[in-house]
Design goal:
- The complex is a heterodimer of chains A (295) and B (273).
- By secondary structure, chain A is mainly α.
- In chain A, 74% of the residues lie in helices and 0% in strands.
- In chain A, helix 3 packs antiparallel against helix 9.
- The longest helix of chain A has 35 residues.
- With 273 residues, chain B is mainly alpha-helical.
- Chain B has a domain of 177 residues: MetI-like fold, CATH 1.10.3720.10.
- Chain B is built from 12 helices and no strands.
- In chain B, helix 6 packs antiparallel against helix 9, helix 7 crosses helix 8 and helix 11 packs across helix 12.
- The chains are: A mainly alpha (295), B mainly alpha (273).
Chain lengths: 295, 273
């Protein structure tokens, strides 16, 4: 009897959260999906059925093509940059050096700061003004005699979005470093010692033992960074405002919906973003929870 | 031996260079902030201030103070309420598994990865329907609810590491589900609460998207006000730098003093317990 009562109680305790998630996550996703299939334009809700019109519109919309291209460029540079820097720093920090704690704190502190602050500061560091109005990093490069590095940053035609990845890497590479460092520390020292006894050099140890063991971490990091990059929004706003050459789906969604009142289109972008994130995250969740269960 | 030591010294070159990369924005924020108005010029952006002046910080504080208070008023209830919910959920999911809890847990977790663009329109409509649109309570509600996945995850992992025998022993002593929680788990939950509250504090303080859609200008938190300040032509860049520093200060202080716990929160976000 008592167990039964407690089962009821345990369900009762978790129910408010379940209801909240059911409504605010799944209910709202369903609601957005419905809006994306409607003709809703303007301030007042209009649920007239439109079928896939909004989606078709997006795929033939040149602005959405820019968004997809920008997201791809941003994602590739941001993810590869963070992984490379993160792994390098983790390997170096793992070499039993002095001041490891200090370096780790310095590399990781940008995670505590908002994308807005990061964006506002980098906006001035990456000031694209030329000639007598030279400032920010460009000015620093000239002062150091590194004139060849002077560039137009995020106002570079076609490739401006690639430069937005720099502050994003600044913010997230320390986190990647922490993930890798955790992975490196989990590798038993005996493995390395055994390889050394067998006559393997430093590089062979990394290539044949360490890097393969770090593969699951690389995968997690790629998924986490990848889903952040699909959602990137405030960083771009704070660096450059809303500019077509730097447009991404999250900004287009925002402008369609809250500036232009094209609710149907905004909802369709939201759903497409969700699908692209779900493709990354659902297998990851299933895999992680299953391995956890096996442990 | 000597060769080994000299090559070890080389490791510090990339480590120091990368430190400069990470500290550069902080450096420019601070040197600009401490300059007097008469020293401000984009041409001399990289030169050190002549003395320590607070003109920029005072100016930025005047412009941002009400919004910093909005942030503070919003962040504490958001962090505390979602931590309490997360603690109860974590307890049930770790120690009182019921039929279907294996399905419910991943369904809750998925909520922390969704792009909020996919729920933004209903969220705004819903907040308008329940008369919570525009002010801070609505923003708190959003942070509490969308914080449930990460807080639940952290507490579940924390409680999973606590021996179930402890709970069983307390039940033999006549404790029920709630009294076990109260007498056994809650007293040893402090570390998990610290991790989760810090994490929620930081993410609510740093949030921009929810704030910008759910609040009116008089309820704007600091991030929205700062972004607005940066976009305006009236406020000079030096004041923006000082303002950025003020906006980053609370979370930076937490990071400096409680970094260890902050890191644990980060790792929980990667599903590592």
């Amino acid at each position: 009897m008592r167990i039964k009562r407690e089962t009821v109680l345990s369900i009762a305790l978790i129910t408010p959260s379940i209801i909240a998630i059911a409504i605010f996550v799944y209910g709202f996703i369903g609601w957005t999906a419905r809006v994306s299939l409607s003709k809703w334009k303007g301030l007042l809700p209009d649920y007239t059925w439109a079928g896939l019109e909004n989606y078709k519109g997006l795929f033939s919309d040149p602005r959405f093509h820019i968004d997809i291209r920008n997201t791809l460029i941003f994602t590739i540079i941001f993810v590869l940059g963070s992984l490379f820097i993160g792994l390098t720093l983790a390997v170096l920090l793992d070499m039993n050096i002095k001041g490891e704690g200090f370096f780790r704190s310095v590399y990781l502190f940008p995670m505590a700061i908002s994308f807005i602050v990061t964006g506002v500061v980098w906006r001035w560091l990456m000031n694209p003004a030329m000639g007598s109005r030279l400032s920010g990093l460009n000015l620093l490069f000239t002062n150091l005699g590194l004139d060849f590095l002077v560039n137009k940053w995020y106002t570079t035609p076609q490739w401006g979005i690639a430069f937005i990845a720099i502050p994003a890497i600044w913010q997230m590479s320390g986190y990647t470093m922490a993930l890798y460092l955790g992975g490196l520390r989990a590798i038993p020292i005996q493995l390395r010692e055994a390889a050394q006894v067998d006559g393997a050099n430093e590089w062979q140890i990394f290539k044949l033992i360490i890097f393969p063991l770090l593969r699951p971490i690389t995968l997690s990091a790629m998924i986490i960074l990848g889903h952040i990059s699909l959602k990137v929004f405030d960083l771009i706003l704070a660096v450059a405002g809303k500019q077509l050459p730097l447009d991404v789906p999250a900004i287009y969604m925002w402008q369609s919906t809250f500036d232009g009142y094209f609710f149907g289109r905004g909802a369709a972008i939201g759903i497409l973003l969700l699908l692209s994130v779900a493709v990354l995250i659902i297998p990851y969740l299933v895999y992680t929870l299953r391995t956890e269960e096996e442990l | 031996m000597i060769k080994k030591r000299s090559s070890k010294w080389l490791i510090y070159i990339p480590l120091v260079l990368m430190s400069i990369f990470y500290l550069l924005p902080m450096y420019i924020m601070l040197i600009t902030g401490f300059k007097g108005f008469d020293e401000i010029s984009l041409k001399t952006m990289w030169t050190l201030p002549k003395g320590i002046r607070f003109d920029n910080f005072i100016e930025a504080y005047k412009a941002l103070a009400p919004f910093m208070w909005n942030s503070l008023n919003m962040v504490f209830p958001a962090a505390i309420i979602s931590s309490i919910l997360g603690s109860m959920n974590g307890y049930i999911l770790a120690k009182w598994r019921f039929k279907g809890s294996n399905i419910i847990f991943p369904l809750i977790l998925f909520g922390m990865f969704i792009p909020y663009q996919s729920i933004l329109i209903p969220l705004v409509e819903f907040m308008k329907d329940i008369n919570m649109y525009g002010g801070l309570p609505g923003l708190v509600l959003a942070h509490v609810i969308y914080g449930i996945p990460i807080t639940t995850l952290t507490f579940r992992n924390y409680y999973a590491n606590i021996p179930t025998e402890l709970i069983e022993a307390s039940r033999i002593d006549g404790c029920g589900l709630l009294t076990s929680y109260w007498n056994i788990l809650l007293p040893i939950s402090a570390p998990a609460f610290v991790v989760v509250i810090i994490w929620q504090f930081t993410s609510a303080w740093n949030d921009f998207l929810f704030a910008v859609v759910l609040t009116n200008p008089q309820s704007w938190p600091i991030t929205v006000a700062l972004n607005n300040m940066a976009g305006s032509q009236i406020i000079a860049w030096n004041v923006q730098m000082a303002g950025s520093f003020l906006a980053a200060l609370p979370t930076l202080i937490i990071y400096i003093f409680l970094g260890r716990y902050f890191l644990r929160g980060l790792m929980a976000g990667a599903l590592k317990g």
